[in-house]
Design brief:
alpha+beta; 5-stranded mixed sheet; 217 residues
């Protein structure tokens, strides 16, 4: 009785070994499959994609306008203002500061390329600015529009450029004239002395976060 039992054990061991070889063979054959390659691919950082998009726009502007474009886009804030409506929007919004950097470098010298190694855009809430604006509005006939302002955010797009966002209680469907009155009051109050940096745009946002009005500062 021992001999048949041993034979069955040998057959089972052989079958297990054969299955193992088949599994290894299938696994090695799929190493170059698209799913395997995809797992090894790391996504490009948002700031890198935004920088590249900005460079492409800057190269186009440099090709069309040369040094004149450099003055307009770098000195007079053209790249910063363009970043608000640049495409593809989802790429630009990942890091608008990186987009501006790429645009400025490309349009400034044409071949200058120093991509960022980290996120460029930095957002900073400034309660003091909001309090000062409301205090000014109360004595200049714009108290009611100012009451809709809930938060002032400085959007730093690099060491020398920034935008100002005004978060409000307005709805997406609020009247443009009413929202425009708040934007005009804030721009009038803004003194223009920005220290070492320059504020270019005021962006008034609805309670939902939607952009309602954008104007120059």
């Amino acid at each position: 009785m021992r001999a048949p039992t041993q034979a069955r054990r040998l057959r089972r061991a052989f079958a297990a070994a054969l299955l193992g070889m088949l599994a290894v063979s299938c696994g090695s054959g799929g190493s170059d499959a698209p799913t395997a390659r995809a797992s090894r691919t790391t996504a490009e950082p948002g700031y890198a994609a935004a920088y590249d998009a900005g460079r492409r726009e800057g190269e186009r502007l440099f090709k069309e306008g040369g040094k004149g474009a450099a003055v307009r886009e770098v000195v007079w804030g053209g790249c910063v203002r363009r970043s608000l409506r640049a495409e593809p929007h989802d790429v630009v919004e990942k890091d608008r500061g990186a987009w501006v950097l790429g645009c400025k470098q490309a349009v400034g010298q044409g071949t200058d390329r120093h991509p960022p190694t980290a996120q460029v855009t930095r957002r900073e809430s400034d309660p003091d600015l909001l309090a000062r604006f409301r205090s000014w509005a109360a004595t200049h006939g714009t108290k009611r529009p100012a009451e809709h302002a809930g938060r002032v955010v400085l959007v730093h797009l690099g060491p020398h450029d920034y935008d100002v966002e005004l978060a409000t209680s307005y709805l997406d469907t609020s009247a443009q004239a009413e929202v425009g009155q708040l934007a005009e009051a804030f721009a009038t109050w803004w003194d223009g002395d920005d220290g070492d940096a320059r504020a270019w745009n005021l962006i008034v946002r609805a309670h939902s976060g939607k952009d309602l009005v954008t104007r120059s500062l």
